[in-house]
Amino acid sequence: MARHDYDLPVDYEKRVEEGTMSEWYTRERAKRQALKQQTNFESEFTGLRRRIERMIAAASETVKVRR
Q1: What confidence score (pLDDT) does residue 25 get?
Q2: Cα separation, 33 vs 25, whole angstroms
Q3: Residue whose C-alpha is closest to residue 44's, from 53, 58, 34, 54
Q4: Cα dist from 29 to 3, 4, 6, 20, 45, whole Å
Q5: Which of 13, 34, 51, 57 could form a disulfide linkage to 41, CB 3.0–4.6 angstroms apart?
Q6: Structural domain boundaries of the chain?
Q7: Cα separation of 22 and 67, whole Å?
Q8: How far, CA to CA in Å, does 12 sit from each of 3, 23, 44, 50, 59?
Q9: Residue 13 to residue 19: CA distance in whole angstroms
Q10: What is the per-residue DSSP string for the chain?
């Protein structure tokens, strides 16, 4: 298999068999392009990602509380 930097979906083999992997790649490329273009999507996506990462870190009790 060729090298890539995509995080393949969990159901990769099933998608390949069904022929829907091309649609997944198209959506992934569109998402990456939008992230590079400083769009509203980029700011919303990165903001959401940061919030989720903070929630996960807080849930694992690894975050120091600022007072």
Answers
A1: 84
A2: 12
A3: 34
A4: 16, 12, 10, 15, 15
A5: 34
A6: 20-59
A7: 49
A8: 15, 12, 27, 26, 30
A9: 10
A10: ---------TTHHHHHHHT-HHHHHHHHHHHHHHHHTT-HHHHHHHHHHHHHHHHHHHHTT-SPPP-
CB atoms closer than 10 angstroms to residue 34: 14
d(CA 12, CA 4): 14
Looking up tokens 């992230």 gives 35
pLDDT of res. 2: 58
State the pTM of this model: 0.46
